[in-house]
Amino acid sequence: MTTLKSQLQQDLTAAMKSRDELRSATLRMALAAITKEEVAGKSARELSDDEVRQVITREAKKRREAADAFADAGRAEQAERERAEGDVLAGYLPAQLTDDELEAVVAEAVAEAKANGAPEGPKAMGAVMKIVNPKIAGRAEGARVAAAVKRQLAAG
Asked: Is 4 in contact with 49 (CB distance < 8 Å)?
């Protein structure tokens, strides 16, 4: 079984051979971020696939934010490049949850938190987030999840 990091390296080699400049530059950037994460801290270590996914998710988010900033500044060409890089990275991430799927997972977590004796209303936010985060595992952005939890706690 190949790891996600080795898959990225193989895809980089293939992109270089096919002279796909965008893909090879994006994969180089992702691998550099992974390597940086591996050597951060007191000792170097090999990242697990989940940790590699977290790094890729963080890099994809940076691309989305940069694309928005470039678009707001009227620099459409750079914004398009950032979006294209984000699309390349998205291919290595799990499929994102739809709004309906996210609401269903959050509703289930709110019910579970209440059953476990969590406080009512907004005070239950932490308890619900502890239940939701492992279930979504990178399939929805944190801000989106938090907003869904707040909506359900306010409504319920």
From this structure: yes
- Tokens 């080795």 belong to 6
Alpha helices for the chain (secondary structure H): 4-17, 21-39, 49-72, 76-90, 99-115, 125-136, 142-155
Q: Averaged over 78-91, what is the pLDDT?
A: 93
Q: What is the mean pLDDT of the chain?
A: 87
Nearest Cα to 30, choosing from 89, 81, 70? 89
Boundary-marking domain end, from 90, 108, 137: 90
- Dump pLDDT digits (tens) for 108-153: 888 887 777 767 777 778 888 888 888 887 788 878 888 888 888 7
Same domain assignment for residues 80 and 22? yes
In contact, 128 and 149? CB cutoff 8 Å = yes
DSSP string, 76-115: HHHHHHHHHHHHHHHTTSPPPPPHHHHHHHHHHHHHHHHH
